[in-house]
Write a structure and sequence with these properties.
The protein is mainly alpha-helical. The protein has 18 helices and 3 strands.
């Protein structure tokens, strides 16, 4: 999906609107705008408009969205009119991009649009879960409660992702340090050992010869190494954007040794928490399944939810529909079945989410504890290999001189 900046005329109010939209192509963006009641005047790729620094500075973070949602929920709950509440939040918002979006939403509201429709014009910021909850809140007259649920959902999801990133950062740092040490030894110490052997007309040991050859190649062809790495990373990133790449990446997450339990619990917690939030706000079962299939952010899990939705549409219960899905942990259909019997599916999905969130915390702690000694072993092996390649030749030379 690409992000396009557009300038269009709103058919309802005849006003000129400037914003962004996500679409596969410029033509698709134009069709989307037309379907929303706009007459496109100008559409251009967002990446062509702004440099990397400008795009980074204008990024709307999860924290920005949480603060916006909490503030708006509080003001609406206090009885302030919607437009006035939005203007109050606008005055308290510091992010320029967020301010621009809020101003556009205010203009839409004052033009007679529903709040959910106004939010839906900004899919890059407000996802389908957000829109569905706002729509349900408007229909039931509990908009403030719906927004509090949205903020709670965003906070829990952000907290889970933060913990997972924290668990992955340590091994990445250690691996970077290992690579830096290896590069330093190859480029500084190993060439000196080579020169020593050349001066004495001695033959290098095999391990040292391998390191010397690697160092010579990197010194003479460093530009080629960087080109190969850069091209490899570029094509790998492009592959990850394809349908096959996305599917294989998500499948890898669900099956990668050591981390697969963590990822599976993350997706179960996300599915259960999102489902609980949607159902408790009044969203219909099939709509909930369609929305959560996108919210889980894993196409393998999403496919399982979609298959289950088709079975539910055919008359089967949700618990039996999920029961035979390969990557759904057993507790999910079990808890949903209890909810179906008691008439409290949303409540049981919430409890299921809490269980998996707690288990995810424990899983992350276990991985962090297990991965540290494993990385220490890797560092010891690498350091030992380098020391052996450097010191053994020197000891051999000393022994030869002694004889």
């Amino acid at each position: 999906m690409n992000k396009y900046a557009y300038e269009a005329r709103d058919s309802a109010s005849n006003k000129i609107v400037k914003s962004t939209v996500q679409a596969e192509s410029e033509t698709a963006a134009a069709r989307l705008l037309t379907a929303q009641g706009f007459t496109p005047l100008k559409i251009e790729l967002e990446d062509d408009k702004a440099g990397p620094l400008k795009r980074l500075m204008g990024r709307i973070t999860t924290k920005d969205k949480i603060v916006f949602t909490r503030q708006l929920a509080t003001l609406i709950g206090a009885g302030l009119p919607l437009a006035q509440s939005m203007r109050t939040v606008l005055d308290q918002t510091t992010n320029k991009k967020m301010q621009q979006i809020i101003q556009e939403i205010i203009a839409d509201i004052e033009g007679g649009r529903a709040l959910s429709e106004s939010f839906a014009k900004h899919p890059a910021v407000f996802d389908k879960v957000f829109i569905a909850l706002i729509s349900a809140g408007e229909a039931s007259g509990t908009l403030d409660e719906a927004m509090r649920r949205i903020a709670a959902q965003q906070e829990k999801d952000a907290a889970m992702m933060s913990k997972i990133r924290g668990a992955l950062i340590y091994p990445i740092i250690v691996l970077v340090v290992i690579l830096a040490v290896v590069a330093f030894m190859l480029l500084t110490v190993v060439p000196q050992v080579k020169n020593l052997y050349v001066d004495l007309n001695k033959e290098l040991p095999m391990l040292t010869q391998v390191m010397v050859s690697s160092a010579d190649f990197f010194i003479n062809f460093w530009w080629l190494v960087f080109i190969i790495i850069g091209v490899g990373i570029y094509f790998f990133m492009q592959y990850l954007k394809t349908e096959s790449g996305i599917r294989n990446r998500d499948l890898f997450k669900l099956n990668v040794p050591l981390f697969k339990g963590m990822f599976r619990k993350l997706y179960m917690a996300r599915f259960s928490r999102t489902g609980q939030t949607l159902l408790s706000t009044g969203v219909a079962m099939l709509d909930m399944l369609n929305i959560t299939s996108e919210a889980v952010n894993n196409v393998i899990i999403s496919d399982g939810i979609t298959r289950s939705a088709e079975k539910v549409k055919g008359g089967k219960s949700l618990s039996s529909s999920l029961k035979n899905e390969e990557y759904f942990l057993e507790m999910v259909p079990q808890m949903i079945k209890i909810g179906e019997q008691s008439g409290k599916i949303d409540e049981m999905m919430g409890k299921c989410a809490q269980i998996y969130e707690d288990e995810l915390d424990e899983e992350i702690r276990t991985i962090s504890t297990a991965i540290e000694p494993a990385l220490m072993v890797v560092m010891a092996v690498v350091a030992g290999g380098i020391v052996g390649a450097v010191l053994f030749p020197i000891y051999g030379l000393v022994g030869g001189v002694g004889l």
